[in-house]
Amino acid sequence: PAPSVMVLMVQREVAERVAAKAGDLSYLAVAVQSAAAVRLVRHVAPGSFHPRPRVESAIIKLEPLAEPLVPPAERQAFLAVVRAGFGQPRKQLLNSLHQGLTQATGSADAWERDAVRALLDAAGLRTERRPQELTLHEWRALLHAFQRAGHAAPG
Fold it and tell me: How does residue 155 score in pLDDT terms, banded at 50, 70 and 90?
């Protein structure tokens, strides 16, 4: 059976990335938060261990969502779209998604900017936003725009 709760101790930076909010999201945060509620429980100082590690740790609690953001049958496609969107996370969404889709398909002309712009428009997303600024629901809207346009998931 699937676990009902997971409590993990990981490096502090990893815990903070997993628990990030919109504005600071990463591929890792979207992947985890689309399937589980995440809570950063506490930080653990290096002095709590022997031998003392060189990094700080943190405890996170993951509770699988009763209703994940996307159905299990769509999860692989969802994560492929998110991965493509985070291809160049510091760039604007149009450029990052264009480059990510191009890399995922291995073809320089498979995804023209106008096609990517049309997908973003269909999802109600402004092209100048950055991938980390999107909410989980906006990533799902982008997946649905791919599906309505008849595109297979990248990668």
Answer: low
